[in-house]
Amino acid sequence: MLRSRHTLPLAIIAIVIGGACAATALLFDWIPPVASEQSDRVDDLLWFVIWASIGIFTLVATVLIYSVFRFRAEPGDESDGPPTHGNTKLEIVWTIIPALLLASVAVWAYIVLSDNEALASDREVVNVTAQQFAWEYQYPDGSVGTGDLHLPVGRQVELKMRSRDVIHSFYVAEFHLKQDVVPGITTRLIINPTKTGTYQVICAELCGVGHGVMRSRVIVQSQEDYDAWLAQAQQKVQALSQQGANQPSDATPAPGTPGGDEAVEGAAGQDQGSGGTSTDGGETEGGE
Amino acid sequence: MATVEPGHGLEIPSTATPPPSRGAKLSPGLLSMVFFIGSEVMLFGSFFTAYFFVRYNIADQWPPLNQDGEPFELPKVITAVNTAILVASSFTLHWGEHRLKHHNDRKGLERGLWVTLLLGGTFLIIQINEYIHLGFTPQDTAFGSTFYTLTGAHGLHVFVGLTILTLCLIRVKRAHDFNSKWFTPLGAGSVYWHFVDVVWVILFFLVYLL
Amino acid sequence: MATHAPTHGHPSSHEIHFDTRPLSYWWKRCVSWSVGSVFFAVALVWVLRNLFGNTPTWDAEVYTTAMAGLGTIGFLIGIGCFDWWWNWMLGRRVDYHDHSMHGARTWRDYFKVNTDHKVIATQYLVVVFSFFVIGGIFAELVRAELATPDETIGDAQTYNGLFSVHATLMIFLFIIPAFAGLANYVLPIMIGAKDMAFPRLNALSLWMLIPGGLMMAVSPIFGAFNAGWTAYTPLAVQGGTGATLFQVGVQVVGASSIATAINFLVTIFTMRAPGMTVWRMPLLVWANATTSALVVFGTPFIAGSQFMTLFDRVMGTNFFNPSAGGDVVMYQHVFWFYSHPAVYIMIIPGFGIISEVIATFSRKPIFGYRAIAFSTVAIAVLGFGVWAHHMFVSGMAAWLRVPMMITTIIIAIPTGVKVFSWLGTVWNGKLHLKTPMLFALGFISTFVIGGLSGVMLGTIPVDIQVTDTYFVVAHIHYVFVGGSLFTIFAGVYYWFPKMTGRMYNERLGVWSFWFMFVGFNLTFMPMHWLGLQGMPRRVAAYDERFETLNVFISVASLLMTVAVLIFFYNMITSWHHGPKAPWNPWRGRTLEWLVSSPPSLFNFEATPQVVGGPYQYGVPGARHAVVFAPEEIGGELTETERRTILVIANETVASSTLVDELRHRATEGFWRFTIAVPTEGRDRDAAERRLQVTLSALAESGIDASGLVVDGDVFTAAETVRQDEEVHEIVLATYPTGRSRWMAEDVVDRLRKATGIGITRVVVLPEDARRPLDQAGVRRVAVIARDALGAEGLVAALRERADREPIGVVLLHPMDLDGPGWTDEAEEQRTAAFDRVRATIDAIQEVGVQARGEVLDGDAAAAAKVAVTAHRAEHIVVVAARGGALDSDESLAAVRAAAGAVPVDSVVVDTEAPASPSGQAG
To answer: Quick one: DSSP state of residue C877?
Structure first.
């Protein structure tokens, strides 16, 4: 009965709705430009979830719209519908299928997560300090780029981030990555930039009056440009330090990371535990 | 708990509410106290969560060092005595309740309540005295904050418990309330008092001893 | 206790002494207590600070905390929430059945403390919708700010305050208490209780909302509550006086929430009517039981988190100060351990409402009742295990992320089960697209979108990308607006007739839905795009490339404002002078529809007895409950306590549809029916015959019914009956719209206006109106006739017969076809036979006798067999045309043989002349 009467109109409605959803998904530019290895992986996963969602939404909307037209009571018809109380088989099916779909999403997400956070041995480490309402980047050899974050393309970079006051969040839409910067702990973010260009760094966690304007730039350069910039920046720093060294080195984290950090890395490299957090000895500095 | 809700007797007061539509097996008064205690457990749970986060997630050592570089110290012995006092008060209250329930002895209940109030009051006084002589304040690192919040919250609960029991005492003395068949407010109050005791025992173990 | 007399404390058996103190007394008292306690707070803090040597003596935050806290208590004492308890505490004699503050008699009673759950619910809804308006204004201000990429209407500080207060009010003072308010009204009735378990606590919960809500609403004036509703530390610690007000306000509102939840739980556990087993509880009751458990066990965590923040701010503790051993991330753990379950607190009652609405307007039992009930509980239990999915980028312990993702994803499954079950309910139903149903269906479509974006946010890598962007803003609004708000609207429209006793304006309701639905989707759908593109949330200034879309969103949001204005206009005008609502305008099956609209002071005159599941649509004879049936209460109700339903019908009066409906109503309550048949200038005898049929059918079923034929129209009929007795409801039976003259003349609305009584319309199909009543009390007479069918004499004979006893007639036209039955000639004969039968049915109907007919291939004996077997005829009359085929002894003998025990009469008529009975054979 279900096959004969309902199939065709259902299919037509499903095609219209599914088509409209698919067109919306494809015609609009939903995803910002991709600029890191991480964003590629996240994209694939996101699209998988989007297509699955379109499928489920189409199913629900189709049944709903069809029912509204097909099963609408005639005016004045006050009779009851058939006393269907349920259908165990059907209920099991619509429990299991979403469960399987969701399980595959979870597995995929897990793989993406561990890939995205896998550490490369030759990674560049940059210390990031956030405060109300500015970003500050510090390179391993002591050069400080107050405004912009310069990164070499094609090489993994690890951001070690601290906050001086409240919670901030380092967010670059093109990298599809984000990490809160929390006072008291050092959080980290792994990025593999794949495209040169200039992108916006946005603070994504409400941090006060200047939250909306707490932006800076990340400039992804070729390795040569990056090296040239680094050398130049170092010269500038040296010139500055000769002038009188009013650099508040006690307020910014020391460039040479404490030993505790290395230990965490060693452990973290083995599994997904490489995640966002490591509480090293650094946070006690405020109390000193 | 064999608390019995009144039926529709004339001499014994029934619930303050329109009566349950069926012969309710659960006393609404007592049941509400059980749920309320569930809520209270969660409140203490949130403070304990804070305590454990601070202790195991952040602190290098516990108790941490004070300004003089020495670890904070908690008076374990006197608190143990205080714990015994509070636990004893649970038994005295139970005795009073027992007298009422099984012997319809309102005088016995009154005595039990008096002793319980005395013991609970002693506990509070010792606790306040402890605060005065601890040598650190809620502002002294997160250790002080969690310690004072946990013990302070408990102290407040002891105070509330004492208030409830005092009110029960007033009902007994002035309104000649409660008998072996109906004593819901007292039953609820005593459950609350036992709960306050249990929380203290856990707190004593986790904060002072562990 | 062994026995409880069901009538115990039967409130109507008491004298109820209403409190007579005027409104002004309470509010003067309230103001003086509030002001007094605020001054007391200032003095107390001043003394204490001087005593302990705290410096500075004047610390705004400390004073604000004390003033807000003690002011709240003063307000509650002043308004009278504690009066009864105060007497109890002092050991005075108290009346445990004190109903002096129960029920509203004038509008004034709505402005003071009341212990009637219905009054409290109304107060709840008015209060929360007031806060909804304030929150909505804040929302439009937010959209005004975002219409340009720069800061326009204020600085960033103002903007931060705007969205913080918007979220706070909508969450803590609209959605959560709105559900509490709706449930307050219907839940006790649904389980057959006279009130909540703790009416005075119920009142206290309501009145706590007002100071708590005001604190939050005014916090922007005092500045610097700007950390968002999540109030993350350490930013929240930096805040100013506004933040203090928020933190105290959350405690007050949270306490209210817990008190209500405990009240609901105890009510559901102990106050259910006899027979109301857990598997017979309506799904709204399930939903509220679950939600209440979440509130009771979850809310203390937000209380804890705000206490700690407050201590950090006011007392200088170090919970969240990393430089003194505090833990910043801990705040988020504690906060979300409540606030994620809070999301379910804000949606599960909505699920309950939707289940009620969908079952009622689909006229079908809910599909998978147990699956929905279990999935509700599953969501609640799992809800406590997913909190950290809000914290994937927060810097918490990394190992916690994957388990939290898995639990988050698991929770999507029971949610999906619910959605599919609703679809299963809608499928194959008889959908009535009234406003509540529109909101319910709109809810399903938008909530699915919100759920799916929730799965995306639960997927860690995607969450890392889109969290804290407009994607999240879109998601929460799809869940809270497309989810919770739509269900609240559905609920308010659905129960509006029950609460106010008046119908809302359906047309305006439909308009408000479409404005809401379209405006909502246009507003929030584009936000998904903004979020993916990288527009962070909670910013007053944003990148210029997002400008066009933001302007679009700001404009679209105005549509929702229009919808809300229509809603308010509709509610206020309908409440004031809408048409009177019948007891059960939607044909709902749950208990609240079996009592009057609005229900009486204590809902039920006697304890209802629940006898079946709540959604037994389409199950013949099924019923959910019996309300005040005499045998259940030991015959205590007197005759005068019966309630009268006036039934008005003309040609439809003897239809089985109407009789079934009346039987159904009779099983539900202690009803007496008065059936009035207006003649409208036509044959009075016909009307009397029809009425006789109905009355004897009802009498057979033991239903107390009387009837009268009134010369005149519907209005005359109603007036005539109302002169003699008080009518509580009118049932009007008509043909379907389009075929009914009454409907063309708009009789329902006019009658409602004329009488001021709620009207239920029963629609009777014309076929049904003429079908012989297949029921006891009506004698089923089979008439076997051929050529005699057109004769005058037949009709006259039947009319005479019908005057003696109620009969229903089956006309059987046997055709002894010679030769094959498929020839053109045979076909012509058949057509002629049909015409004859039809004409005769009309003629019989005209005189008020029920009839239907059938043409059979076969002889009279075959027709007799059909009459006995298929139509269960109790009497057979063979009407033969003189000299016709049936006018023979053989034929009659064959008929007798075929009829068996059923008596057979024979009538011979002249096809030209009037009938003349030729005597009976045997």
So the answer is: E
3-state secondary structure of A20: helix
Q: Answer whether C325 sits within 8 Å of B143, measured CB to CB.
A: yes
ipTM: 0.89
CA–CA distance, C479 with C456 (Å, rounded to integer):
14
- Reading across the β-sheet that carries A177-181, which strands appear in turn? A149-152, A215-221, A197-203, A168-172, A177-181
Parallel/antiparallel/unpaired status of strands C729-734 and C807-815: unpaired
**Among all residues of chain A, which has the CA nearest to that of C532?**
A31
C-alpha count within 13 angstroms, C-beta hemisphere, residue C897: 10
Rounded distance, CA A256 to CA C796, Å? Answer: 115
In this predicted model, what pLDDT tens digit does every residue of C676-722 receive, in sequence order? Answer: 888 877 778 888 888 888 888 787 777 778 888 888 888 888 888 88
- Bridge partners of C875? C781
Distance linking the first and last C-alpha atoms of chain B:
33
A118 touches chain C (CB under 8 A): no
Partners of residue C852 on adjacent β-strands: C810
Q: What is the largest CA-CA distance in chain C?
A: 125
> What's the CA gap between C325 and B71, in Å, rounded?
14
Beta-strand relationship, C875-881 and C904-909: parallel
List chain C residues with CB under 8 Å of A10: none
Give the position of tokens 């012969």. Answer: B23
| Out of A83, A211, A277, closest to residue C617 by CB | A83
The reply to whether A207 touches chain C by the CB within 8 Å rule is yes
Counted residue by residue, chain B has a size of 210
Radius of gyration of chain C (CA): 35
Tell me the Ramachandran region of residue C635: left when phi exceeds 0, alpha when psi lies from -120 to 50, beta otherwise. Answer: left
| Helix, strand or coil, per DSSP, at residue C678 | strand
- C628: chain B residues, CB-CB within 8 Å: none
In this complex, do A98 and C412 lie within 8 Å of one another by their Cβ atoms?
yes
Tokens of C870: 């298929």
pLDDT at C841 over 50: yes
B61: contact with A, CB 8 A cutoff = no
- Decide: helix, strand or coil at residue C570: helix
Radius of gyration over every alpha carbon of chain B, rounded to an integer in angstroms? 20
- Would the CB atoms of B167 and C84 count as touching at under 8 Å? no
C46: exposed, middle or buried (Cβ count in 10 Å: 0-12, 13-18, 19+): middle
Cβ pair B200, B86 in contact under 8 A: yes
Say which of B25, B46, B145 has its CB closest to residue C300: B46
Q: Is the pTM of this model over 0.90?
A: no
The reply to whether B57 touches chain A by the CB within 8 Å rule is yes
Nearest residue to B98 (alpha-carbon basis) of B202, B190, B21: B190
Nearest CA in chain B to A185: B58
Q: How far from the centroid of its chain's Cα atoms is residue C912's Cα? A: 62
Interchain CB contact of A100 with C (< 8 Å): no
Closest by CA position to C207, among listed C265, C261, C255: C255
Separation between Cα atoms, residue C358 and residue A116, nearest integer Å: 45
Strand ranges across the sheet with A134-138: A144-145, A134-138, A124-131, A157-163, A186-191, A277-278
What's the DSSP call for residue C578?
A: P
For residue C65, which of C33, C40, C41 has the smallest C-alpha distance?
A: C41
Choose the weakest-confidence range: A273-282, B53-62, C442-451: A273-282
In Å, what is the CA distance from C467 to each residue of A180, C462, C476, C525, C920? 11, 8, 11, 16, 93
CA-based nearest residue to B157, from B39, B78, B73, B74: B39
| Residues of chain C contacting A89 with CB distance shorter than 8 Å | none
Q: What is the pLDDT of residue C771?
A: 66
Report the 10 Å Cβ neighbour count for A210.
15
CB pairs under 8 A between B and C: 216
Tokens representing A122 are: 């030759």
